[in-house]
Amino acid sequence: xxxxxxxxxxxxxxxxxxxxxxxxxxxxxxxxxxxxxxxxxxxxxxxxxxxxxxxxxxxxxxxxxxxxxxxxxxxxxxxxxxxxxxxxxxxxxxxxxxxxxxxxxxxxxxxxxxxxxxxxxxxxxxxxxxxxxxxxxxxxxxxxxxxxxxxxxxxxxxxxxxxxxxxxxxxxxxxxxxxxxxxxxxxxxxxxxxxxxxxxxxx
Length: 203
Prior knowledge:
Layout: E1 2-7, E2 10-15, E3 18-22, E4 36-38, E5 40-42, E6 56-58, E7 67-74, E8 85-93, E9 96-100, H1 110-116, E10 121-125, H2 134-144, E11 148-152, H3 167-171, E12 179-181, E13 186-188, E14 196-199
Parallel strand pairs: 3-5, 4-6, 9-10, 10-11, 11-14, 12-14
Antiparallel strand pairs: 1-2, 1-13, 2-3, 7-8, 8-9
């Protein structure tokens, strides 16, 4: 499965020529609003930085190869009282499962973890303030046990909200040999892709 990171929490997943775009955004400092063609679009919740579909052109005629499962969670640590609900999704195709945590705002319950697992790739917010922070993200990633952990929703230089943390706070919690920094925003994951924290770069 091919993953392309467009910044913030937005990814394109591709399998068998089918493109699914996840959490397209608007108004992220340092990034252009997302504009893309896709065969399907999925949003974890209705905020503008995760559900900007105005410039997503949907194509038709392709069979969706992804088996998609949804797990209801919250956008905060107060049962949704502050920011509402958040939908976690599991995408499975070609023997690979990718889980996108959206704007998860709390440590998942045992029931939620049971629904999330198993997965090969975990797309996880790490910046805090609006989502779980680096320490809670590490606890979540450990509990899920994905082979490949891809951090998202963080600040890098002038890119991203200035109130959220950087990716380095998260990666510092791992042994250096597990952290791989890619010079590209594209990651292809196979069944035998080794264990790693994959830090992607924006083009």
